[in-house]
User: Fold this.
Amino acid sequence: MSDSNPILFSSAQSIEAYQQAIEQSTQAVMQWLKQSEMYQGKTVAELRDRIKLDFNPKGLGNEAAIERAVEFFLKDSLSVHHPQCVAHLHCPSLVVSQAAEVLINATNQSMDSWDQSPSATIIEIKLIEWLRTRVGYQAGDAGVFTSGGTQSNLMGLMLARDAFFARQGHSVQQDGLTGDLRKIRVLCSENAHFSVQKNMALMGLGYQSVVQVKTDEFSRMDLTDLAAKIEQCNANGEQILAIVATAGTTDAVLSIRCVLLLSWLRNRISGCTLMRPGAARC
Assistant:
């Protein structure tokens, strides 16, 4: 173990170094929180010129490394907790979440398998089960935590893709993609997140697979245009893999289901998936 960069374990030296590092970091955060002025920001050029890391192969040691992090990171970080801050996406964190991060980082459990995170795995399963009941899904339904909306959309589209092919008696997991892939379509509103196109590209189906549906003056999906786009896909011999309903700009998920039902009755659509926060088959 390096004296300047000790690992975290049971020795008195390691525990003392850990306590000092946590105390130094905590003090810096408390001072940062007490700033009365909102962070005004710097230009990219100013930050590039200011941040000089000067990497040292031997390391700086805990105290100097934390001082550098405070100087080059903390002092030029957005004050998302400040009342004058208009957040783009992220928000202030809970105090208890900060305490949880201390426990998580200290134990460094791996959620890769149960033997690497016994209690954390069970806690995650129970939390997902609780969320399932809150949403109203049936017993036996499962879930997974993701890093954010883009990954969530990717998971939803992957599940929709696998279900689409499974209904045709084909396993994507076992045999990969098959058939005329250029005929596969995903419908979403013109206000849907860009990750729909990006994720379809990641899955090998390309931007060309995404058909955008018009929205009304309230940014809701235009159900008349949705029905027309479905009719057009059918006329072109294209197969609809999924319809993405954007929560927050679309409050007509049930109405979309009605459009799908009427279209199915007229044209016998091969099964597609309606995606919303938590994919539901239609």
